[in-house]
Structures are given as structure tokens and as C-alpha cells.
UniProtKB/TrEMBL annotation:
Superkingdom as given in the UniProt entry: Bacteria
The gene coding this protein: cpfC
Role this protein plays: Involved in coproporphyrin-dependent heme b biosynthesis. Catalyzes the insertion of ferrous iron into coproporphyrin III to form Fe-coproporphyrin III.
Biological classification of the source: Bacteria, Bacillati, Actinomycetota, Actinomycetes, Propionibacteriales
Family that this chain belongs to: Belongs to the ferrochelatase family.
Binding-site residues for Fe-coproporphyrin III, renumbered to this chain: 69, 138
Protein name: Coproporphyrin III ferrochelatase
E.C. numbers: 4.99.1.9
Residues reported to bind Fe(2+): 193, 283
PANTHER family: FERROCHELATASE (PTHR11108), FERROCHELATASE, MITOCHONDRIAL (PTHR11108:SF1)
Species of provenance: Naumannella cuiyingiana
Keywords: Cytoplasm, Heme biosynthesis, Iron, Lyase, Metal-binding, Porphyrin biosynthesis
Length: 366
């Protein structure tokens, strides 16, 4: 490692993120305009067996928003916030953006870091939970983009970090404050991306609960947010954005079905909290703000959508905490990971059995 880039960890001027010499914020990426939509969707779904009708349908969701996902603008805001938070903690490392599925692509950004002399990079992902889709696929894409030129390591899954929970607590409180219906007729509906049942069962390290780590983590986060933000209000966990062939079982209930059930049970208002996503993107603005809001309207339910963590200072501070924690571990220091009571802190190094890729087992991952 070049000394100019990264002083020895025990020197007084050592960067708090040493031994890393750069940070990459890793996001999903989304289309920036109508011409990007099809190439983006092809890239995301290559070899996935997603039916053509589903792709056409998803293309229409983007068309409704001018062919542009809000994800890139939200990720840029997070990048700016994370840069200033890490600088405020005394780090001078560059913090760059690399997307899995749209420009700037990890496939370009990581080789460029290597050409600039970087050797050991810390990846901070915009996905907070274990599962192949939300964790290991990121690790696979990072390994493919890094090649042999760079060592890339990533932060742990962080949804159970108190800072991520605090951001969601604040968002649920704000949404509830706008609801006129009394609490006893109001329901909190936590939402995340549906994934195939088989992927859910394989999520997280062994030993796993029967439902798998993805669902267990969401329940833990939902329970903690509900207990703090709305102790008198009942809650459920529901799912959005199902794709894949209809005969393949995915996590249920779908949010729209759950809204119908709640209305039939006498619930009159819902606060929808997308705890599965760290920022607003197409799933949030289409599946929740557009589709689920219309379903609620048809059912006569008062509806409010809680904000995603976004750039909430508690969330940005949590990302900095886990980055610094990861660096301390890389230096061989003991670390006590911050985690909400009764929940699991993510593994920093995933065992081979973690979040297995059921379609292509053994795909290299960082
Ligand atoms: C768990 C999870 C997250 C949360 C964790 C994380 O944030 O990573 C997430 C996020 C996102 N997913 C996104 C977009 C898409 N996901 C798709 C397809 C799929 N997602 C899956 C899972 C997840 N996805 C799965 C199991 C599939 C089936 C195909 C496969 O097995 O891989 C498809 C294909 C069409 C369709 O089927 O919908 C698209 C276009 C965008 C960007 C949106 C924008 O542009 O604003 C984001 C943030
Ligand atoms: Fe997705």
C-alpha cells in the first residue's frame, strides 16, 4: 500500500478509516431518462426468468415518471451527506459512488480506483438486510467489478443499527401526526420488497430461523420502530414489487391484499412505512405512493406514507459508525457493534452458507 494514500494505522495522522484508502457507496442505480429504461431493465433481469409481461409492466411504471427513477438523485444526496459526515469524523479518504445497474457503474468505478493507486476499498451499501438479492448479490457484483486489482470489503448489514431504526421511528411519528383517525382504528403497515420464499429461507448465516434472516430482520426492525413510534397502534409486515413467474411462491401478503384485509377488519387509517428501503425509488413512488395509495383510497382508508431513512442525520451517522467499526475490525481491534435490543448485528465476514445464490451457487463474492 502506498504511504501517500494511507499512512500506517498507528501513526498520529492515520485516517480513522485506515487500512482502507477509499470508500465506495454502492447503490442499485436506476434510469436517468426514457432511453435508459429498457437497457436498465435488461441489465437487471439478465438470465432471471422474469416474464416479458412483467418487464413491460415495470417499464410503464418508469414511463409514468418520465422514464426516470428518483433513486439516483436520492443516492447523490446520501453521497454528499456521507462525505461530510466522514470528513467531520476526521477521514480524508475519497468517497465515490458505484452502482450495480446504472452509471456510474461499479464495473467502471472500481477499475478507475485501482488505476489511481487505491488498493483496499470499503464498500458501504444502500441495502440494509440479509438475503441474496439485498446482500450477497452486492458482494458478487463487487467481486466481479474489483477483479484482482483491488481488495474490497464491505460493512455489515445494518438495518438493526439503532440509527437506522431511529430514522424510521422519526418518519413514522411524522406520518402518524398527519392522521386524523384515532389510534385504535389506525394500523402501521411496514413494507419491504417481496423475494421468493426459497431466497428468504436461505437468507442470513446459519443457524437460521425457519422464515430465514430477511423476514426475521424485518420483523425485528418493525417491532422496534412500532414500539417506539406508536406503542398503542397495531402493525403488520407486508410486501411489494413481486415479480417472477406466478407459480413461484414469493413472500406475502402483498401490501394491496393486506390493505383490503385491514379495511374488512374495521381499520380506517394506515401508515405505510417502507423499512425495507433506505431511500425513495421506483418501488416506493410507484408501488406505494401510486398503487397502494389508490388501493387505500378505493377502500376508504386514510393513508399516509412514512419517509424512507434518506439523509436523516441519525441514519447518516449510523453509516459512518459502521464504516469506522469495519475499519477498526480490519485493524484487528475489538469492536462492540451497536444493535437494537434482542436483534442480531450483521456479520462482517459472511460464511459460505450465508444468503446462498440458489441459481448459481458458488459465484465469487467479496
Ligand atoms: C430485496 C430487494 C430490494 C431491496 C434491497 C436493495 O435495495 O437492493 C430491491 C431493490 C431494488 N430493486 C430495483 C429494481 C428492480 N428489481 C427487480 C427485480 C427484483 N428485485 C428483487 C429484490 C429486491 N430489489 C428481486 C428478488 C427481483 C427479481 C429478480 C431477481 O431475482 O433479481 C427489477 C426487475 C423487474 C421486476 O421484476 O420488478 C427491477 C427493475 C431497484 C431500483 C428501482 C429504481 O429504479 O428506482 C431497487 C432499489
Ligand atoms: Fe428489485
Amino acid at each position: 500500500m502506498s504511504e501517500a494514500l494511507s499512512p500506517a494505522p498507528d501513526s498520529p495522522t492515520a485516517d480513522p478509516l485506515a487500512p482502507y484508502d477509499a470508500v465506495v457507496l454502492v447503490s442499485f442505480g436506476g434510469p436517468d431518462g426514457p432511453d435508459d429504461v429498457l437497457p436498465f431493465l435488461r441489465r437487471v433481469t439478465a438470465g432471471r426468468g422474469i416474464p416479458d409481461e412483467r418487464l413491460a409492466e415495470v417499464g410503464e411504471h418508469y414511463a409514468l415518471f418520465g422514464g426516470r427513477s428518483p433513486i439516483n438523485a436520492r443516492t447523490d444526496e446520501l453521497l454528499t451527506a456521507l462525505r461530510s459526515e466522514l470528513a467531520g469524523r476526521g477521514s480524508a479518504l475519497p468517497v465515490v459512488l458505484g452502482n450495480r445497474n446504472w452509471h456510474p457503474l461499479l464495473d467502471d468505478v472500481l477499475p478507475a480506483l485501482a488505476r489511481d493507486g487505491h488498493r483496499r476499498v470499503l464498500a458501504v451499501t444502500t441495502s440494509a438486510y440479509p438475503s441474496w438479492s439485498s446482500c450477497r448479490q452486492y458482494r458478487e457484483n463487487l467481486a466481479a467489478a474489483a477483479g484482482d486489482a483491488l481488495i474490497v470489503e464491505r460493512v455489515r448489514n445494518y438495518a438493526t443499527h439503532p440509527g437506522f431504526v431511529a430514522a424510521n421511528v422519526a418518519a413514522v411519528r411524522r406520518a402518524l401526526a398527519g392522521i386524523a383517525t384515532p389510534p385504535e382504528a389506525t394500523r402501521l403497515l411496514f413494507v419491504t420488497h417481496s423475494i421468493p420464499d426459497a431466497m428468504a429461507r436461505a437468507a442470513g448465516p446459519q443457524p437460521r430461523p425457519a422464515e430465514g434472516g430477511y423476514v426475521a430482520w424485518h420483523r425485528a426492525v418493525a417491532g422496534a420502530v412500532a414500539a417506539e413510534a406508536a406503542p398503542g397502534v397495531g402493525w403488520d409486515l407486508a410486501y411489494c414489487s413481486r415479480s417472477g413467474p406466478p407459480q413461484q411462491p414469493w413472500l406475502e401478503p402483498d401490501i394491496n391484499d393486506q390493505l383490503a384485509k385491514l379495511a374488512a377488519d374495521g381499520v380506517r387509517a394506515v401508515v405505510v412505512a417502507p423499512i425495507g428501503f433506505v431511500s425513495d425509488h421506483m418501488e416506493v413512488v410507484y408501488d406505494l405512493d401510486h398503487e397502494a395509495a389508490a388501493t387505500a383510497d378505493d377502500l376508504g382508508l386514510e393513508f399516509a406514507r412514512a419517509a424512507t431513512a434518506g439523509t436523516d442525520p441519525a441514519f447518516v451517522a449510523a453509516l459512518a459508525d459502521i464504516a469506522l467499526e469495519r475499519a477498526a475490525l480490519a485493524r484487528g481491534e475489538a469492536v462492540e457493534p451497536a444493535v437494537i435490543e434482542g436483534a442480531e448485528a450483521g456479520r462482517v465476514v459472511c460464511p459460505e452458507s450465508c444468503c446462498v445464490n440458489l441459481r448459481h451457487p458458488g459465484t465469487p463474492a467479496i
